[in-house]
Every structure is written in structure tokens, then in C-alpha cells.
Specification:
Number of helices: 15
Largest sheet: 7 strands, mixed
Shape: globular
Helix content: 25-40%
CATH class of the largest domain: Alpha Beta
Mean pLDDT: 86
Strand content: 15-25%
Number of domains: 3
Strand order of the largest sheet: 12-11-10-13-14-18-17
Structural class: alpha/beta
CATH superfamily of the largest domain: Vaccinia Virus protein VP39
CATH architecture of the largest domain: 3-Layer(aba) Sandwich
Distance between the termini: 55 Å
Number of strands: 18
């Protein structure tokens, strides 16, 4: 996984490994205990009535790979919250951590070892289609209902292709796992990750999938919902070899560049391990924001400050003028500008004669320095963990910030916490009826579209929230996610003006 750490592997299925770790105390020799969520509950047996020692829990990193918790057919669940650091392999899993346990988990995506999964042949026609699993009737009903081998067989029948079921092979076959197929398909209702997508694509094998697992994250992959849609894709490949060649090239290039293990380790796993070591087990991780800081800003602002200011707009930006007009119509005396960037709102308030006590918050040391040099009141802090008491400012404000977050929930929760009358955010990617998590691992940067009803449902759970309103600000008349701005108004307690 990483060259920076020494790893020792223990096998859950071997009684001697379990005895060495838990009964004989080998766990004390390690700084971190990294394992799936079974690590959180399945070792109770070894510690009896006294329970798992807290210093053992403090060493845990619990990794969840399945998008469902507390389901009788899966093993994902959490017994011990205080101590472990939690992570999920996909955004869906992080959402479920939050919904099920109110835990803010780390995003730790898994990739592919491109030195072991690499192209060995050229595919010009789809004759054999691979499916990871057994044929219909040879597995458990729950598994078949999820993976849908019957759907796979119907697709093969309709496209006159040979069905190849991949199972019972050692994973150490690496690239040879996919040597007998011309295309890999996932027909699943849901997947945790669907590791075969990246493995096959890294080998130059075309992959199509239902919208599950990593198929939600890989930009160039083709997805389908129905049998006919899958057949149309396959038949198009066979009718147009140049189209097939281009598809394989783009998919393979994206996966080998953005989803290789070395790249993901540096971006996600190593920072997570470092964070766990820094905490030293003194503070329960679930009480601290566990989302990795976006690093684009600090890495690029010294050379792109002017460009960045053009992106966010000066005080004359239409949505900033709209917000200041809103303030003039209401009676507020204090505002905290979260993720304030170059803090142009401070200057806008002064230019418009708006008398309001202002303070900006930003985690970028570069922006903090640039703003304080201009005598703008600032707090240097992560937007998710602002060092101020609850209800410190009448308005908690942010603009063009939620779209860059891995998850909207932690930031919105913090805004509601620090605001006393209103929390409000201006979106440059308007929430819609379908979520799209758009992550660029090369830049460690998100441009997300969130679901409006999911945002509202989350806010309704907070007893401090009285009412949620939406207001359209701009509309440039175009289609797509960047077509204008809107604002959410989250009225707090019983103090609405």
C-alpha cells in the first residue's frame, strides 16, 4: 500500500493469528490497527466481560466497504464509537456512516496496482463478456438479487455473445483474471466498490456497469439501467470498432492515471494514517471532523491568486450584490463569512454602508495572510471546526464553498451551530433532483451537485432549524450544472426577522 509504513498482515480466518493478536497481546506492538468494521465488534470474544481495552480502540482504523449497515446479509456495523477512526471506500458509504451513526468518516478510495494489472492484448470485437460470480441458481438468493446474473445472461443472449463467469480463481492471477473476456459487465443493484471495474480497465478490457460503486466515480465509463441499454452499448461497440478502440483507450488511461494505488495512497491513505498517528488516541476521532482537507488552494494560490480572485468575483459580482440587498432588507448585526477567500464581502459591506460586524474564516494560510494585511478580521481555521462558541454570530454565511466539499453535511452542520438567526449559502452549482459527486483526484478538488431534497431532509433533523427557503439569484439561460446561482436560507430557532 505505502512505502512510508511497515505493514504486518494478520488473517482473520486463522485461529493462530487471532490468538497472537488478541489473546497474547500482539496488538500492543502496533501503532495502528487497520481493518474492516469487523475489527470493531468481532473481537469481543477475546476480551470477555472486561471488554475491549480503550487503548486498543484508540489504535483502530475501521474501513467500511459495503454501502449498507446493520443488514443481516452483510457484516458492516459499529459497536464502539469512541476511539476508532472510521473511513469508507466511496461517497455513498460516508453518507451512510453519517445517517446511521452520525459519524463523519474519512474518504479512502481503493484503486488498482497497475504493475500487476496491465494490457496484454488488443480487443477489436466483443465476443465474450465476463461477469464476476456464479451463474443463476448456484448462489444465495440474496446475492443473486443483488448481482443479477440472470440479467447478465439475458444481455449475452440478446447480443449473441458468450457468457463467462469469473469465480473460484485466486486473486493473485492479477491480469490473467480477465484474459478470457472481451468486456466486463456489472449488473448489480448496488456495489461497495466493484474493484473489478478498475482491474479490468487497467488491463485494457472495456467495462460497462449499472450506476454502482466506482462506476459513479469514473468519468469515462458507460453505464446502463436496463437490458436493452446494455445491449445497445455492446452492439454499438461491435458495429463501430473505432468507437470501441476510443472507449478502451479513454477508460484505460483514466483508470491507470487516477485510480492507481500509488496515487490514491498519497492523496488519501497516507494523510489518514498520519492523522491517526498525530492524534495518539487522546481524542475520540468521531468528535472531530475526519474529512481530508482540500489541498488545491494552498498548493496553487501563491501563483494563481489573481486567477482565483477572478473565479470568485469581486464585490460587484451579481450574487454578492443580491446578498447585500438581502441584508439591507433585514436587521442583522454580526456575520461570519465561512470560507471567505479574498474576503471581498468585507469591502462590499463598507462600500454599501452596511453596518455589520464582520469576521472571515479560511483554512488557507496564504489567504489569511493576504486578508489580515488588509486589516480584515480573520480566523485561521477549518470551515468544519471553527473555534467559536455555539450561536456566536447572527448570520453564518458561505458562498461557492459547499460544492467543493466531499459532503455538504459537516459544513452545513457547523454553519447552523455557529449561527444564531440564519445560516445561508450561495451555490454556483445549483442543487438538483440528482446528486453528482465530481471528484478530481489529481487536484484533490470537488465540483459537486447535491440533491435539494437530501439537503432539506438533513436540515430537518436539526432541532435548531426552523425553516428552509430557496431563492434563485442568477440564470444565464443555459443548460447544465453551471447555469446560474441560487441561495439557501436556513432560519434558526424562533428569531426569524
Amino acid at each position: 500500500m505505502s512505502d512510508k509504513y511497515e505493514f504486518t498482515y494478520f488473517d482473520w480466518s486463522k485461529p493462530e493469528d487471532n490468538a497472537a493478536l488478541w489473546t497474547h497481546g500482539a496488538w500492543k506492538d502496533f501503532n495502528i490497527l487497520l481493518g474492516n468494521t469487523a475489527l470493531n465488534f468481532d473481537i469481543d470474544f477475546f476480551f470477555g466481560e472486561e471488554g475491549i481495552p480503550q487503548n486498543l480502540l484508540d489504535k483502530m482504523i475501521n474501513v467500511c466497504h459495503c454501502p449498507y449497515f446493520n443488514d443481516p446479509h452483510f457484516t458492516e456495523k459499529v459497536h464502539y464509537r469512541d476511539g476508532p477512526l472510521f473511513c469508507g471506500l466511496t461517497r455513498d458509504i460516508l453518507t451512510n456512516f453519517k445517517d446511521e451513526y452520525e459519524i463523519i468518516a474519512e474518504l479512502a478510495p481503493v484503486g488498482v496496482d497497475i504493475s500487476k494489472f496491465y494490457p496484454t492484448r488488443t480487443i477489436n470485437k466483443i465476443k465474450k463478456i465476463g461477469f464476476i460470480g456464479k451463474p443463476m441458481g448456484s448462489g444465495h438468493p440474496e446475492w443473486e438479487n443483488t448481482k443479477r446474473p440472470e440479467m447478465f445472461q439475458q444481455i449475452c443472449d440478446k447480443t449473441n455473445t458468450e457468457a463467462v463467469y469469473i469465480y473460484g480463481k485466486p486473486h493473485t492471477d492479477y491480469k490473467d483474471l480477465y484474459k478470457d473476456i472481451d468486456l466486463l459487465i456489472y449488473c448489480s443493484r448496488f456495489e461497495g466498490v466493484a474493484t473489478g471495474i478498475c482491474e479490468a480497465a487497467s488491463c485494457g478490457i472495456p467495462v460497462i456497469s449499472t450506476y454502482v460503486g466506482n462506476a459513479k466515480n469514473i468519468e469515462s465509463i458507460k453505464t446502463f439501467e436496463t437490458i436493452d441499454e446494455a445491449c445497445d452499448i455492446i452492439n454499438s461497440f461491435n458495429r463501430h470498432p473505432a468507437f470501441l478502440e476510443k472507449y478502451i483507450s479513454s477508460l484505460t488511461e483514466e483508470v491507470r492515471k487516477k485510480w492507481n494505488w500509488k496515487h490514491l495512497c498519497k492523496k488519501f491513505w497516507e494523510p489518514m494514517l498520519e492523522k491517526k498517528l498525530e492524534r495518539g488516541g487522546d481524542t475520540p476521532p468521531h468528535s472531530i471532523l475526519n474529512t481530508l482537507k482540500q489541498t488545491w488552494w494552498d498548493e496553487n494560490l501563491p501563483t494563481m491568486y489573481g486567477t482565483f480572485c477572478e473565479w470568485v468575483g469581486d464585490s460587484k459580482a451579481e450574487s454578492k450584490i443580491y446578498f447585500r440587498n438581502f441584508l439591507k432588507e433585514n436587521d442583522f448585526s454580526t456575520i461570519i463569512d465561512i470560507g471567505c477567500g479574498p474576503a471581498t464581502e468585507y469591502e462590499g459591506f463598507k462600500q454599501d454602508g452596511i453596518e455589520i460586524e464582520y469576521i472571515g474564516v479560511d483554512s488557507s494560510e496564504y489567504l489569511y495572510g493576504a486578508n489580515t494585511t488588509r486589516n480584515i478580521p480573520m480566523i485561521l481555521a477549518d470551515a468544519h471546526n471553527i473555534p467559536v462558541p455555539d450561536s456566536s454570530y447572527e448570520i453564518a454565511f458561505s458562498r461557492h464553498l459547499l460544492e467543493h466539499q466531499p459532503d455538504f453535511r459537516p459544513l452545513l452542520d457547523e454553519m447552523v451551530r455557529v449561527g444564531s438567526k440564519l445560516a445561508t449559502h450561495i451555490f454556483f452549482i445549483k442543487p438538483s433532483d440528482k446528486e453528482n459527486i465530481d471528484f478530481n483526484p489529481d487536484l484533490n478538488l470537488y465540483h459537486n451537485t447535491y440533491e435539494k431534497h437530501t439537503i432539506e431532509a438533513h436540515l430537518r433533523k436539526n432541532p435548531k432549524v426552523v425553516k428552509v427557503e430557496w431563492r434563485d439569484i442568477t440564470d444565464d439561460g443555459t443548460e447544465g450544472r453551471f447555469a446560474g446561482e441560487n441561495m439557501i436560507l436556513i432560519w434558526l430557532e424562533e428569531t426569524r426577522g
